[in-house]
Amino acid sequence: MKQQAKKGDLKWWQLSLIGIGCTIGTGFFLGSSIAIKKSGFSVLAAFLLAALGTYLVFQQLAKLTADHPAEGSFCSYAREAFGNWAGFSNGWVYWASEMLIIGSQLTAISLFTRHWFREIPLWVFASIYAVLGLIIIFTGRSSFEKTENILAVLKTSAIFMFIIIAILALSGVLSGKTPDVQFPDELHELFPFGFMGLWTGLIYTFFAYGGIEVMGLMAIHLKDPKESPKSGSLMLITLAVLYMISIGLALLLVPIDSFTEQNSPFITSLKQFNLHLVMDIFNGIFIIAGFSTLTASLFAVTTLMGTMAKNGDAPACLAKKQHKKVSWPALGLTVLVLSISIILSILLPKQLYEHMTTAASIMLLYNWVFILLSSKKLTKPKLKGNVQIFTALTLILFAVSGTLFEKNSRPGFFISLLFLATIAVVTLMMRKKWTHTGKEQP
């Protein structure tokens, strides 16, 4: 039985700001370089398609929230639509994927910090950021909201700063002369790697919009849950515009082959102007962005684990709340697995861990698929709603299938299937138990 939500105190625009804070992270500031390498100028089309797909998914999640406000968000809706097995598997797929992604985020922001302190071991910074994130979660939802609001403003300001600097650079103000603008004059320059480039790059642009799950978990705290679609619309339109303008300007400043997977497109495009102070500022912004999405992920997995425990999908002790409505046992489990994830990120070969985190990111899209299917069953959409659901499913499947044709992301796809198979086996075992005890829902 899903947990019915109480009336909250969150305004719709505050949820939009939290969504921006949870979404803008290393997936955009760094991952967009990979998308550019795969797609060239057509990466702008990929960002637009990913924004459309994300918008359609969130609209369905918002409809579910408006009609059935419940703790556990997408997991509760999957359970109501398809039974215990769906809620159980959705929760653990999301939890496993987020814990892996958290480890990679910690490693990334620790590497950024070592830009200034090269002699200090990586694990020291990872531990410091992990403790800071856990302190914010420990102090309660209010602290989390305030932190994400402040970091959202900082990250958005950084993108605006890049846009202004890039316009000045293109105008010749920075260097005293107008640089060679890399403007595509012909169709083959817009799609330098053809249709396949757009296909294989789409998955990385979807990663830049990851974060709507946290908005779904927070939406039950809205004063009026029916305003959830409005908050998602504002958030995604804002992000899509900022993403496309900033990436478009970066593409105009330097040739496509100048971008590398190791550097942010912002750093790559401004490097020729020797703006050392600006580079240090952006390095700090990358740390802020990674820490913000890290904190959002910690909040999501800790909150969701408590709800899963209430539903019998996790040990009952994880549902106990002693301080600021935070479950200490759930927080303790997060700390334990977080420590393991940090150790893996440091000890495993870099390529293998990147494949694991790519798999985790793909698994988030599997959750999105369930959101769409749950909405179709519970909200009984008419023609327009069905078209939206079908379009979103097509875009997600298009993005996921593109990983099969790209050598760097292909292993991540198969690792994601391995994770799904493991969780499926455990789910089947649990389903036998539920059937035996009479707890399985029809």
TrEMBL record:
It is a multi-pass membrane protein. PROSITE patterns: PROKAR_LIPOPROTEIN. It is found in: Cell membrane. Its main location: membrane. The chain crosses the membrane at residues 12-34, 40-58, 92-114, 120-138, 150-170, 190-212, 233-256, 281-305, 326-349, 355-373, 385-405, 411-430. Keywords: Amino-acid transport, Membrane, Transmembrane, Transmembrane helix, Transport. InterPro entries: AA-permease/SLC12A_dom. Residues 15-381 form the Amino acid permease/ SLC12A domain. The keyword Membrane applies. Pfam families: AA_permease. It comes from the Bacteria. This is Amino acid permease. The keyword Transport applies.
